[in-house]
Design a protein that fits this description.
By secondary structure, this protein is mostly helical. It has eight helices and two strands. A two-stranded parallel ribbon has the order 1-2. Helix 2 packs antiparallel against helix 3. The longest helix is centred in the N-terminal third of the chain and has 30 residues.
């Protein structure tokens, strides 16, 4: 089972301006072939279908713990998309006349679907609004093959994120990419170490793919400085501690030196931005004042 915490895994800076095209670019990291929906889908169903869990606990626990982190990555990217589409955390003014075409500029956006159907919110689609495909999920039941596929997936995701990063200038999208580049490299390293334990092959020597050290990315630097590249989280207070049998040794030579560490629990996390309503998008409604009043009464009653 999973426990939900009302935080993001890391705090995102507010965007400088609304940028629906940047939001579309970030959608690629959610619903693209190497996006977070793909990593989540692969690890989720591999963990559900894992054979001989009790006899292969370090390897099962590795996939299971990373699955929980990937749920948070889907949430993080989704929030980044909505923030870029919404703009800064300023209060939106009241509704205007819909007949004045207040969103005329949206017809020229790359993904008008993101506006017309989803009001700027994230959905499991790629940067061109093509639906994420369940065919991207690989779960064969063969542990070595699945771990090798996961390593390939994380390396593909690293390339994916770097390309998207190079298209973005807004701090929100760049922060999403910077954090996920560090954490995705952790996952690739973890799967490489698991394969090394099972096969004896030094597959971690293939890292990083592509060959760009993370310290070249400014948004990665603070996560490297705090040692995030050396931590693997259990996302549980009591379970999956056995992943320490796999996640052990030294950090990759391309990253700051230090011992790999298993952390029981999860990252401290950061706030979820409270995006203001947009009356002319009817989100949450054209004139939501009565809704707010009802919600305030219910909140007061619950305390």
């Amino acid at each position: 089972m999973f426990m939900r915490i009302d935080k993001l895994q890391v705090e995102l800076p507010a965007p400088k301006a609304a940028d629906p095209n940047a939001a579309s670019a970030l959608q690629e990291l959610l619903g693209g072939k190497y996006g977070e929906m793909s990593t989540l889908g692969n690890y989720l169903f591999q963990s559900f279908s894992f054979r001989s869990k009790s006899k292969l606990r370090p390897f099962y626990g590795l996939v299971a713990a990373i699955t929980a982190e990937e749920l948070g990555h889907v949430e993080l990217v989704s929030n980044g998309i909505a923030m870029l589409a919404n703009g800064p955390d300023d209060e939106i003014v009241g509704p205007g006349d819909p007949s004045d075409a207040p969103y005329e500029f949206m017809k020229d956006m790359r993904s008008v679907t993101g506006f017309a159907s989803h009001a700027g919110g994230a959905t499991p689609v790629n940067g061109n609004s093509m639906s994420w495909n369940a065919d991207f999920v690989t779960t064969t039941g063969n542990v070595i093959f699945d771990l090798l596929h996961n390593f390939h997936l994380e390396c593909g995701a690293r390339l994916h994120k770097l390309r998207v990063y190079e298209t973005l200038s807004d701090p929100t999208g760049r922060e999403v990419c910077g954090y996920l580049l560090v954490r995705g490299s952790v996952h690739a390293h973890a799967y490489a170490l698991a394969l090394k334990q099972l096969t004896g092959v030094d597959i971690e020597k293939m890292l990083p793919v592509p060959n760009i050290p993370l310290d070249r990315i400014p948004e990665c630097q603070k996560y490297l400085d705090e040692g995030s590249h050396r931590r693997l989280y259990t996302f549980s207070d009591t379970d999956y501690r056995e992943i320490a049998g796999v996640w052990a040794g030294e950090a990759l030579p391309t990253d700051p030196a230090g011992e790999l560490e298993v952390v029981e629990g999860m990252p401290e996390g950061g706030k979820i931005h409270d995006l203001e309503g947009e009356p002319n998008v009817f989100a949450p409604d054209y004139a939501p004042e009565e809704m707010y009043e009802i919600a305030a009464k219910l909140f007061k009653k619950s305390r």
